[in-house]
Amino acid sequence: MIGLLRRLFGGGAPHIAAAHPRDAAAIAALHAQSFHRGWSDDEVESLLTDGNVLAHSLRVGSAFAGFVLSRCAADEAEILSIAVARRHQGRGLARQLLNMHLGRLAALGVKALFLEVDENNTAAIRLYRRAGFREVAKRPNYYPLPGGQTAAALVLRRDIA
Question: What global pTM score does this model have?
Answer without folding.
Answer: 0.89
